[in-house]
Fold this protein.
Amino acid sequence: MWSSFRSCLARIVGLATVSAALVVAPVTTSPRAEAAASPGGYWLMTASGSISGFGTASPSFGLPSPLSLNRPIVGAALTPGARGMWLVGADGGVFAAGGNAGFFGSAVGLRLAAPIVGMAPTPDGGGYWLVGADGGVFSFGDAVFYGSAAGTHLNAPIVGIAASPSGHGYELAGADGGVLTFGDAICWGCDVLPALAAPIVGIVASPGPGYWLVGADGAVLAAGPHNPNPPAGAGFYGSLAGEHLNARIVGMTATPDAHGYWLVGADGGVFSFGDAAFHGSAAATPLAHPMVGMATAG
């Protein structure tokens, strides 16, 4: 299993070219991209479960603040149409908020071999998957279980999960840049592991084919074919690799047309690339708890 984990690194694509070689590029253009910026907004989430909305993103989906948590929040997922949100804690607790976010169960009370590190929704919003640092996958609602890496020796912990476009599979990303695929999920390229300056902290599914991996240093690895027509594949629009950061990057989200993306740091700083418009950040706000992720409002 680990050999397949090591082999499943996606093909990395540059701004306008496709290459089988890894690209961990420094910023070559301003994070405020030259392309026409998309409207919309984004939410930022802290480890305590507080949510901040920017642009067209509504404030908090009615979640109580603060949440009553046994373990910190580690991830979030949006419902179709971004009218609701789920938050997940390291203990597998799931918090549903908003008009169409149903509660389909959680991993609270299960004997977990490792903390939960992320979640991904099904395309219709009728379920979700949770993933642990050991690669264990837990499915709820209409989310089908297609396998996991639980019990497999991994050289690096799993840091995130992304659903395939059909919802009939998912990818698990490791801190070393390896990707495991299950169901109909495609691992693009699958030839070498990247040379990383910092560990991978998350995986983001493209609205089109492919996905992005993001590192704690802001490096962005684009995986999959590039399609110029929306929804585009996972194109490369710049990164923060080699830049001085006040805090490590903890999350990433893409624009609806996949022609841009945002990164967020643990201090609430937001960085925009491609057609992703900058709508503000929490960088100048004292935070009681660090940011852990972000989501696109569209």
About this structure: The two ends are 37 Å apart (CA to CA). The longest strand covers residues 41-46. Residues 1-37 have pLDDT under 50 and may be disordered. Residues 2-7 form the longest helix (6 residues).
